[in-house]
Amino acid sequence: MVTGHLSRVCGRVKLKSMKTWVEDYIRQFKEVVDTIPAESIAEWIEVLRKAYKENHQIFAFGNGGSASNCSHFTCDLGKGSSISMGSPFHCLSLNDNVAWMTAIANDFSYEDVFVRQLENYAKPGDVLISFSVSGNSPNCVKAIEWANAHGMTSLVVVGAKRGRMAQLATKTIVVESTHYGRVEDAQMMVGHILCYAFMENAEKLKA
Prior knowledge:
Elements: H1 2-33, H2 38-53, E1 57-61, H3 65-85, E2 90-93, H4 98-107, H5 115-121, E3 127-132, H6 138-149, E4 153-158, H7 163-168, E5 171-174, H8 180-200, H9 202-206
Parallel strand pairs: 1-2, 1-3, 3-4, 4-5
Helix pairs in contact: 1-8, 2-8, 3-8
């Protein structure tokens, strides 16, 4: 009985401790979100609207959790936003062809996994979006350098360290945190805002 009682007490103490930790995580994320200027996201919406109107392509890429966020973004843009707008966004996550990525990494280097895909697909006027916490991922940096040299518009979301990507990009949104989870949470939020702008304001953005 004593052992069972102590176990329940310890369980309540741990639950209370974790509740405090969760509340702190949410509080810090709210603080991070408040540092992201709405004007910057609105400018990105206009870049995507222009690409849509002019029939340009939109590429997204990143590493790890950022890669998953890029895939989620292009899924929402390619499906939901396209349906609402009445014709498709031409968008692609460069993270989603595993065979191609691994062939490039194996035969050349991991730094080339995005740039060599852009060499196949991209044209002047196209747009790339890259998510990164560090802002210094060599494969992302190399792709942005190539894009800038070939008449593309580059948009990046990076963490507080900014890195080389922030220096190179046409437009940069900085998430003022170095915490991987909170920066990637913010990436997802930015991606959703970009897509839902077209889902929920289609008539306005078609004009």
